């Protein structure tokens, strides 16, 4: 920090230097101002602390404060023993710039250590030599304040929800490990969908792994006893967020699709003492629809030998640059971030499409065209139910399954008929060596799709029927097209029963509210009127189902806008059902909405938590941590410039976290030349 300040001074004009020549260098780190009583004060540029700055007192207090900052910078991981208040709001151009920098780091999940990077500091200095880059500690405190303010705004919305809420529980695999998150979805009184990430937990090998030190919430999902404690911790948070008393449905996708864990959490929710929705006969439970569709795509995975012998070699021979890859995937309408799905099938699909675009001979087969077509349909289905610009997608889930069923059914007929030979020529499906042909693979996929429909239709048929383009009439037609008349009749009977019972629950909710107001009233006329009103209300659902379907030729139907403008007026009680059903979560992929800074802040906090845990884990690893950290020749050169004074750090990390293996490596790096040191690293177990 001192070097950065001195370089800043060298760039100032001689006139500026003459003006500050009589001032102490400590003022490079403080801003002088006068308070309301006329007393001189100094505000630290690296934290929110304000100190006295009377001339007669000298600058010893200011120097002592700055020296503590320098010590904290030298010892990574050391926390300040004092709790400092949140930073003051920006008061000038420099403070405003710091606020913007903090918001950029907080809302995008960047690592706050970027402010310590030499190149980042040099970049800012070239833009404005006068700008003082804040310390990492100051930025982290500002980010914490942003998160705290964000959380207040988010949970204030939860208290004003006009309907019910849906809970989503999922795990996100980061580069450093798994994170368990809980989210809440609801639609507000203006029919806007909100997705709130309530809490994030690091999934660790055992409880109290690093959490108490780093201030990170932890769960352990692998051990039975620890898992019970972890579930209790999640339940305590649910109750604190006040979402259980107003719960519509729960959706989950936990690590390894742990069915036992999911049912344990479900049972805890149903058994909680707060009486979830006493008029509801049952809560809805299911898994994410995008994961269901992913499971179908995984059945089409390539045989490893086919992929190694043809696909990989052809891709390597293209010698694509980064820009060429980005341009190709954009032209093909594919997501450039292959890690976003973290799915093998998607990587193989993108590879096949790129080779087709480049005219590779391996893709000029019926099998390759079939595989790309099926994967393409699956990819577009997932995109339709997970697109961040889609107002809601719970009404599309069941439709997407039926669409995929029709596609696979048609291709299965082709692969089993006269074109079977062409389909199996150059068969690259997994299991081809065991005489499993393309028709066998498609049959397995059809079975998986039918099972997915059978398992999920009781839940996803609710928002589908509440889509005015489908209702019961078109939903019935879809089932009749896919299944036999008898099977379709059974499905529709169950759908009709579910929607009718759900409607009755909402009627009872309203009646309970009215009865609570009219306790003790025995007026027979009032009772007769209430009975008449209930009879009229019962026709609300009937009118909705009997009215004509909404025609949408442009395929740009905004279902939330329709319910806001039309449905709420025509069918007010059915609109209450739609408000809750259309907020049901559909995909596990955590997408930060650029238009919702509060949602983005919590997604960023998830990323930041993973990085904070990662810092600690990296220190606790064996000597290979240095290799993983990128100890190239350039990295060794930069590491050699780090001052290891007072034995406070080993390769930039606190000696408290340095393992004996890392300490041995430090000695080797000092004794051996770079080439010998690299060879020694490569021989380590």
UniProtKB/TrEMBL annotation:
Stretches for region Disordered: 72-95
The BED-type domain, residue ranges: 21-65
InterPro entries, per the entry: hAT-like_transposase_RNase-H, HATC_C_dom, RNaseH-like_sf, Vwaint_dom, Znf_BED, ZnF_BED_domain_contain, Znf_C2H2_sf
Keyword entries, A-Z: DNA-binding, Metal-binding, Nucleus, Transcription, Transcription regulation, Zinc, Zinc-finger
GO BP term, example: post-embryonic development
UniProt subcellular location: Nucleus
Biased composition (Pro residues): 83-92
GO terms under cellular component: nucleus
Molecular function terms from GO: DNA binding; protein dimerization activity; zinc ion binding
Main localization category: nucleus
PANTHER family the UniProt entry points to: ZINC FINGER BED DOMAIN-CONTAINING PROTEIN 39, ZINC FINGER BED DOMAIN-CONTAINING PROTEIN 4
Quaternary state and interactors: Homodimer.
This protein's name: HAT family dimerisation domain containing protein
Species: Oryza sativa subsp. japonica
